[in-house]
Design a protein that fits this description.
The chain is α/β, with parallel strands linked by helices and about 650 residues long. The protein contains 19 helices and 28 strands. The chain has a 7-stranded antiparallel β-sheet with strand order 7-15-11-12-14-9-8, with no helix packed on it. β5, α8 and β6 form a beta-alpha-beta unit. The longest helix has 20 residues. The N and C termini lie far apart (about 80 Å). About 0% of the residues have low confidence.
Length: about 650
């Protein structure tokens, strides 16, 4: 791969930069099973591209003697495996990105982990790749992890695959071995829809067929690895597809300029084109395409621009500017693929944040339809998804968004799920299609509304949500509060944790997933009761903040009163009339809050009651009633 870049840098830096700027870019990943030679291959590419500085080369020579795996010879994998843990174990853990260039093209390569436990890292590296180099150790052939990564490559929409049969020097450069591996792989690839496959025999360590045809593989007449990477055509269908620009920023530096900034994720746009703002459906005409270097006559997929419109229309961050004649669909319920990336399992019904493009919305995931055994492609039943598992599930959003199926447009159909409290990314997802039911269900208008029902009862409806450990005294206090409110003539209903499990929730157990569903159902029932004008008291352990937040989000501001009945664990255990704590301590009860399942105390409850015994239940109940009076919930709402 030696080229004249170094000489040109020394003699004409401007010409070098001009040539470099105009080169096309290829993003690719290397993947395969552990120890198939991915890092060695990238190290060899960097070395042959003359992108290893003299001090790095000296360090490589030293490290190769100390921790290398090649008997003191240069171990090119050490150029990439930068983490100490990787060098000690001889495997890749994180995704390592490297840049190099040849005379014809620029490259960004992601060296992705081979081990199954780092599947989430591999998915991260593959999400923006145009091509995948899948390595196979010629001595081992197609392995389980080869199939796993090939499935992920297919799932993530990478259409171009190079099957690099590596370490051919260790099988005497055998054509028969290569042919057998190629036939085996192509048979598998056909099952998962991979068709654009180029098979190349090589030795990354020895440099065979990397940049120059190898005399050791004279029977092979195809391209070298670099030769193929330099010439493969990866023109994306996005260039010819419909125009899409998710708005990242409303650019308004002064009163005379209002533009909408973002990256074009599909198609082409020109001044004069008619566009639709999605999801609102408003239309306008493109007036200018503005960049820091001046206006453009057109913008294509991949360019970041600011677009001004001929009309004063309402556009916000997260909206999509789209071709008026071919806009994206809009929906709030979908079927999707999920790749779970969190150590905590996916809990059906738990509220997450979904980020698609520049829009972030609330989301919940239903119980998976199935999970995929990517080693066998078998679909198996699942109630949840664990770390690195892949499944198909329905997704429900709290508002409608613009989207294209992932197979049509990665940017408009790919999303991540985010934990609402830690802001950690817990999953990557791919939208398949909108669920038809989302278009068939409409809110039915009624003549008697919540305000009318509340006025008839002379009160403001709300949910008073008692939460705390088992034995904290929630039910006792809630019962006293309801009695006091009833005596004052108010209309109430008490939803108690034990009582609802005799009917509404009798099908649920006490796993984390079932407890999430338990609270989700209670939240929905409580919302209906609030709509009926009632003051609803709920007494549930409700151990997770996310589910209590979900219940709060179902109601209007001021209608959710969180009451933390705070009791130390040792005190709660002394009140254990049912003997539940004792059974949990003996291991006879699992998933018991406070013993082997966590309780997440409220951070900012409306009321914090000391239920350790220092204050009586009667006093605590009076505190709750006093708060409801102060909040104006026990007075009639104003007439409309």
């Amino acid at each position: 791969m030696a080229h004249a870049a170094g000489d040109l840098v020394a003699t004409d830096i401007d010409e070098y930069l001009r040539q470099h700027e105009n080169k096309s870019m290829l993003r690719f990943i290397t993947c395969g099973s552990v120890d198939d030679g991915k890092s060695t291959l990238i190290g060899r590419l960097l070395y042959d591209a003359k992108l290893v500085f003299s001090d790095h080369l000296a360090a490589l020579e030293s490290d190769s003697k100390k921790v290398g795996t090649q008997g003191g010879e240069l171990d090119f994998a050490l150029l990439v495996d930068g983490l100490a843990a990787e060098r000690e174990q001889g495997i890749t853990i994180d995704v390592a990105y490297r840049f190099f260039s040849t005379e014809h093209r620029k490259f960004i390569v992601a060296d992705t982990p081979g081990h199954e436990q780092y599947t989430r890292n591999m998915v991260t590296g593959a999400s923006t790749a145009d091509l995948a180099v899948i390595l196979i150790d010629a001595r081992k052939g197609v392995l389980t992890q080869t199939r796993r990564h090939s499935y992920l490559v297919s799932l993530l929409g990478i259409r171009h695959v190079v099957l690099a049969v590596n370490k051919l020097d260790l099988v005497d450069y055998s054509k028969d071995v290569f042919d057998a591996i190629e036939a085996d792989y192509r048979a598998f690839a056909e099952q998962i829809g991979l068709t654009d496959i180029v098979c190349i025999p090589l030795s990354a360590l020895r440099g065979d067929n990397i940049t120059e045809p190898s005399p050791n593989i004279s029977w092979y007449t195809g391209p070298t690895l670099v030769g193929h990477l330099e010439t493969v055509q990866v023109t994306d269908d996005l260039d010819t597809g419909p125009f899409r620009l998710p708005v990242q920023w409303v650019n308004r530096p002064d009163l005379d300029f209002r533009g909408f900034s973002g990256q074009v994720t599909g198609g082409t746009v020109r001044p004069g084109d008619r566009v639709r703002i999605v999801p609102s459906g408003t239309e306008s005409t493109v007036e200018r395409i503005v960049t820091a270097d001046g206006d453009l006559p057109e913008a294509i997929a991949g360019q970041s621009v600011t677009i001004t419109l001929a009309d004063e229309v309402d556009v916000s961050r997260g909206d999509v500017l789209a071709a008026a004649g071919d806009p994206p669909a809009v929906a709030d319920q979908f079927e999707c693929h999920l790749v779970w990336m969190s150590d905590e399992p996916m809990l059906p019904g738990r509220p997450y944040l979904l980020k698609l493009g520049t829009r972030t919305v609330g989301a919940t995931v239903a119980q998976p339809k199935y999970k995929v055994n990517v080693n066998t492609l078998e679909h198996t039943a699942a109630r949840t998804l664990e770390l690195n598992e892949i499944g198909v599930a329905n997704l429900n959003l709290d508002r409608r968004i613009a989207f294209d199926p992932y197979t049509v447009n990665r940017d408009m159909g790919g999303f991540i799920l985010i934990d609402r409290f830690t802001n950690a990314t817990v999953a990557a997802g791919l939208l398949h299609f909108a669920l038809r039911r989302s278009d068939n269900i409409h809110w039915q208008a009624v003549e008697v509304n919540k305000a009318a029902r509340a006025a008839a009862k002379g009160q403001r409806p709300a949910v008073v949500w008692f939460t705390g450990l088992s034995g904290a005294g929630k039910s006792t206090i809630a019962n006293l509060v309801e009695k006091k409110l009833h005596d004052q003539g108010h209309h109430t209903y008490l939803l108690d944790g034990d009582n609802v499990r005799h009917g509404l929730n009798k099908d649920l157990g006490f796993t984390e997933a079932d407890r999430v569903e338990n609270i989700r159902r209670i939240g929905e029932v409580a919302r209906l009761m609030v709509d009926a004008g009632l003051i609803v008291l709920t007494s549930f352990i409700s151990p997770f903040r996310a589910e209590r937040q979900l219940a709060r989000d179902l109601l209007a501001d001021g209608e959710f009163i969180e009451v933390f009945v705070d009791t130390p664990l040792d005190v709660a255990e002394t009140r254990d009339r049912k003997g539940l704590y004792a059974k949990a301590r003996r291991g006879e009860l699992t998933n018991f809050t406070g013993i082997d399942s966590p309780y997440e105390p409220p951070i900012h409850p409306e009321l914090h009651l000391d239920a350790s015994g220092a204050v009586s239940a009667e006093t605590s109940a009076n505190q709750v009633v006093a708060y409801l009076h102060e909040a104006g919930l026990l007075t009639p709402p104003p007439a409309e």
